[in-house]
Amino acid sequence: MRGADDSRAMQPVQTDPPPSFYERVYAVVRTVPRGRVITYGHVALVLGAPAAARAVGYALHSLPADNDVPWWRVINVQGAISLKGRGASADLQRVLLEREGVTFDAAGRTDLARYRWWPGEG
Questions:
Q1: What is the C-alpha to C-alpha distance for residues 116 and 39, in angstroms, rounded to an integer?
Q2: How many distinct helices (H) and strands (E) make up the chain?
Q3: pLDDT of residue 8
Q4: HEC letters along 46-79
Q5: Which domains does the chain show, CATH number per domain?
Q6: pLDDT, tens digit, 9 for 90 and up, residues 63-102
Q7: For the chain, what percentages of helix, strand and coil (3-state, to nearest 5) are there?
Q8: How many CB atoms lie within 10 A of CB 117?
Q9: What is the reported pTM?
Q10: Where does the chain show beta strands of DSSP type E?
Q11: What is the pLDDT of residues 97-106, one digit of tens each?
Q12: What sign does the CA torsion over 27, 31, 36, 42 have?
């Protein structure tokens, strides 16, 4: 004979859906400290999707206007702003990085050996 408690044990447990890839990108980028940068590819690697650097870029491009994600801290593997030559957004990204102390050379590249942030770093 089954008790009332047996039927409850058979019901699936309700859980929240896992975060989307974009939400996971935003969570990683939020951890990048002021004055440091990370590459699109490194964000993808941290998320376990090493071939998804372009998707990281799409995620950042899709950010709503009112957000707390420091998107400007993500640059390309050459140490450059990927928006270079694309107008105000590229200019804004460089200004925001420079305000945080990140410098650029004459070619518009930053020294990744100096400014690159590695997750888990103190």
A1: 8
A2: 6, 2
A3: 58
A4: HCCCCCCHHHHHHHHHCCCCCCCCCHHHEECCCC
A5: 18-102 (1.10.10.10)
A6: 988 999 999 999 999 999 987 556 788 889 999 999 999 9
A7: 40, 5, 50
A8: 17
A9: 0.83
A10: 38-39, 74-75
A11: 999 999 999 9
A12: negative
